[in-house]
Each structure stands twice: as structure tokens, then as C-alpha cells.
Amino acid sequence: MLFLHRHINQILEQWSLSMKKEYPEYKDIERMHRNGRHYLELIFDIQTPVESHPVYEKVPDWCRNIAEKGVPVVHALHGSHLLREAVIQILSPYDHDRAEICDVMAAIRSRVDSFDRAVVHFYWEYASLKMKEQDRRLDELHEDKINLIGKMAASMAHEIRNPLTSIKGFISLMRGQLSEQSLEHVGKYMDIIENEFENIQMQITGFLSFSKKRVIEEESSDIALGQLIESVLVLVKPRMINENIDLAVDIQCDVLLHVQKVPIQQVLSNLINNGIDALKDKHDGKTMRIYSRQDEKRTYVMIANNGPEIPRELRDSLFEPFVTSKLDGTGLGLAICKQIMKKNNGDIDFVSDKYETTFILSFLNNTP
């Protein structure tokens, strides 16, 4: 070991040449020499355990420094190995006792391994802390975005609902004042107006899922799955007929769900209308399936269409606000669906391939 201490400058010179060759972008040679000298002190002082050595206290700062500079940990470890090779190269030309060299190298190897484990530990500890901090900041930004949407939604609901309430009231008055003969002529048109009115109401309810100050908070109640599906299909069937879509429904009609009726109607309506939009560019053979399954804990409602596959680059963020593949889409529909399903102790997911895209709604079973 005394021999190695005497040749530290040569070892550092050899190591510097190797580092320059491997990492020519590294320019701070003085800092590299200083850290290399500390490192060799730690490695050569075999009488002091690695964890107790004064230089060991500097390792966390080293790791934080290279992590902040974006240096991959593998580069730091490679630099450690290059320094070990420089030690071997210095020993090789000299005539030393073979057994003594083996003992020295075994001790050095053990201390290098201890140092490398410490580097990986502290580097990962710091990197994990930074990742958690970044995740926290992203969550805060996401929450700010949701709060902004919520404020916009509450404002829109107030401005839109007032005139809508007046419209609905006047429709009711007109029905009451029209004769039966007149109702035969205009009744179906008034039915269409009322259906469209209900559609707008559901859209407003969906937007309010982002608002912390909801205008109306509907209570959950027991409703049959069949009744829930049928109430939505009544509104969307004209569009399906117009688009020549073949609809197949296989629903466990008597299953009871404990949910908010209007918001869940909004979720179903949104997914079905999205499916209709997805089939627009398909010339023939348009199909949509709505079916349900149940296990011990949950009821699942699947809405499938044979339209195009959802782009892979959108899949991880599909339920986030403002994410859409539609040229005229707002990117809020599926985000609203996600919010509503969470509020109703449910969830929404999807599977998509080139043959079919299926959105899956899951609800907790309504147990006594």
C-alpha cells in the first residue's frame, strides 16, 4: 500500500487519460483530479472501514452533484472501474511479491465494491426524491387545471341553466294550452325539443363534475341497469339510425345500481356518441355492442364499436382534460366521465385494437 501511496500522481494521470478518452465532454480536469485523489485515499486506507472513513461523508454530495448535472450513474461507476484499472497498470511493471499483490488487490476490490454500492444507493435516493418532487409539482399543476375548469364549468352552468329553465317552462305552458288536434301536429317536434333539452342538461351536469361548488348535487338512488340504458338509447337511437349503425344490446336489465342517475346517463350518452363519431368514416358494416357482466363485487357495462383503433400515443392520457383525437373535440368528454365514475364509486377503462374498441364501466354491486 505504501508503494501505491507514493504513486498516486501517476495513477491519477493514467486515470485522467482513460477518462478523457471515454468522456471527452468532461472538461473540469482539476475537479476530476481532486475527487480522484479523495477516492484513492478512501480505497488505499484499508485499515479504516469504508463507511467510517472521512472521505465517505463526501459521497452523498458527489452523488447529488452528478445527479443534478444529469450524469448517468453508470458513468460514475465506470469512472470508478477505470481508476481501479489505473492502479493495476501502475503495479504491473514492478517486481512485487505475487501473494502480496493478490492480497492488496482483493482489499482494493472489496473497498471499490463498497464504494460503488454507496454511490448507487445515494444516487438513487436523491433521484427518487427529485422524481417525487416532480410528481408533486405535476399533481399541483393538474389540480390547478382541474380547478380552473371547475370555475369555468360553474360559471357556464349558471349562465346556461337560467335560460334553459325558462325554455322548459314555456314548453310545458305550450303543451297545456294547445288543443289535442294541434298537439297531433306539433307534439312530436316538442318531444324532440324536450329530448334535446335533456341532452343539454346532462352535458351541464357532466361539466359540473369538475366544479367544487356544484350548482345541484344529485343524491344517489337505486336504478335498474336496463332502465338506465334504455333512457339513454331513446336519445341516441335517431342518430344511430341516421348513421346506419347496427346496435346489439345484451344487458342484465334487473341489476340494480346505486348511482346518481343523470350523471351516469351523461357517461353512457358520451361513450355511445363517441362510438357513433368513431364510426363516421366507416362506409358499411358499422356495429355497436352494449352488454353487461357481473362478478361478486362489481357490475361491468361494456360499450364497443368496430371503428378505428385508439392511437397508442393517446392511451396513457386519454382520460386527462384536453386530450382528444377529434379535430373539433374539446378533450373534456372522457375526463368528465372519469370524474363522474369516481364520484359514483366506479371506474372507466378501455381496450382497443384494429378490430374493436371497448370502453368498460365498472360499478360496485348494490348489496343490502
TrEMBL record:
Record keywords, A-Z? ATP-binding, Kinase, Nucleotide-binding, Phosphoprotein, Transferase, Two-component regulatory system
Q: Which PROSITE patterns match?
A: HIS_KIN
Give the enzyme class: transferase
Q: What is its EC number?
A: 2.7.13.3
Question: Residues in domain Histidine kinase?
Answer: 155-367
Q: Name one Pfam family in it.
A: HisKA
The record ties this protein, via InterPro entries, to: HATPase_C_sf, HATPase_dom, His_kinase_dom, HisK_dim/P_dom, HisK_dim/P_sf, Sensor_HK_Regulatory, Sig_transdc_His_kin-like_C
KW Nucleotide-binding (keyword) present: yes
Q: Give me the reactions it catalyses.
A: ATP + protein L-histidine = ADP + protein N-phospho-L-histidine
What is the name of this protein?
histidine kinase
Its organism's taxonomic lineage begins at:
Bacteria, Bacillati, Bacillota, Bacilli, Bacillales
